[in-house]
Amino acid sequence: MTLQLGETAPDFTVASTEGNIQFHEWLGDDWAVLFSHPADYTPVCTTELGAFAKRKDEFASRGVKLIGVSVDPLDSHNDWVKDIEKTQGTGLNFPLLADKDQVVADLYGMIHPKADPKVTVRTVFIIDSAKKIRLMLTYPPSTGRNLDEILRVIDSLQLTDNHKVATPVDWKNGEDVIIVPSLSNEEAKERFPEGWDEQTPYLRVTRQPGRK
After folding, report:
1. pTM of the complete model beyond 0.90
2. Residue 87: helix, strand or coil by DSSP?
3. Of 69, 95, 118, 154, which has the fewest CB atoms closer than 10 Å, so is most exposed?
4. Beta-carbon contacts of residue 203 (< 8 Å; ≥ 6 apart)
C-alpha cells in the first residue's frame, strides 16, 4: 500500500507491550509518532527506543504520543525491553506493537521487497489529531533517527496549522517565520501588526506568532 501526505492514517488493532491497541481509538485527539523497526535486538533501534523513552515528556508537552512497531512477537519484545533498559538506562514507557502478521507493515507500506521482503524498513510517520499523515521519513538501517528533527517538524506543523506562516530552512522553534504568499499585504497587516521584512514580494519574514 502506498500512502501519501494528507491521507488518513490506516486504523488497525494489534497486540503491544501495553496490551491490544486499536490505533484510532488509542490516538484519540492527540498527535502520534509511529516509527518502525526491522526486527528486535537491532543495535541502532535499541538506542532509538531508549532515546524516545527518555524524551517522551517533550513529545507529550506537544500533545504527541509515541508508538513503535516491529514484526517480531510480543515475547521477543518483552525480552528486548530488558536489553533497552540495561543498555540505555531507561525502561520503555510507550507501546511497542508486535506486528508478527505484518498487519501494520502492509497497511503503512513498510515492506520494501528490494530491501528485504521479510522485514520492515525504518520509517517515521507523524500523524495529527485528525488522523492525517503529515510526514513520512525512511532511514537506512545504519543511521539512527534524529529526534531533534522530528520534534522540529512537529513544532513547525503545529505552528503553521494555526497561523498563515511557513518555516524556513533550518528553522527552530522561536525563530522568525515566513508569511505565506497567499496572504495579501492588507491581510498580513491584520495578522502581523509588528510588520515584516519584505525581501521579495513573495518572501516576507516576520516574528514567530506567539513568541515572547
Report:
1. yes
2. helix
3. 118
4. 178
Measured in whole angstroms, how far is the alpha carbon of residue 109 from the centre of its chain?
Answer: 16
Task: Extract the runs of DSSP E, i.e. beta strands, from the chain.
Answer: 13-14, 21-22, 31-37, 64-70, 96-98, 122-127, 133-139, 165-166, 177-179, 197-200, 203-206
Q: 64-70 and 31-37 as β-strands: parallel, antiparallel, unpaired? A: parallel
Architecture of domain 163-207: 2-Layer Sandwich (3.30)
Residues catalogued as catalytic: 45
Coil, strand or helix: which one is 177? strand
As given in the structure block, the three cell numbers for residue 197 are: 521584512
CATH no., domain 7-145: 3.40.30.10
Q: Report the C-alpha dihedral over residues 184, 128, 40, 94, rounded to 10 degrees.
A: 130
pLDDT tens for the chain, 212 residues: list them: 589 999 999 999 999 999 999 999 999 999 999 999 888 888 899 999 999 999 999 999 999 999 999 988 888 898 899 999 999 999 999 999 999 888 998 899 887 666 555 556 789 999 999 999 999 999 988 899 999 999 999 999 999 999 999 999 999 999 999 999 999 999 999 999 999 999 999 999 999 998 76
Alpha carbon 74 to its chain centroid, in Å, reads 23
Q: Are 69 and 34 in contact (CB under 8 A)?
A: yes
Alpha-carbon separation of residue 115 from 34, 40, 120, 139, 200 (angstroms): 20, 17, 9, 12, 44
Q: Where are the domains of the chain?
A: 7-145, 163-207
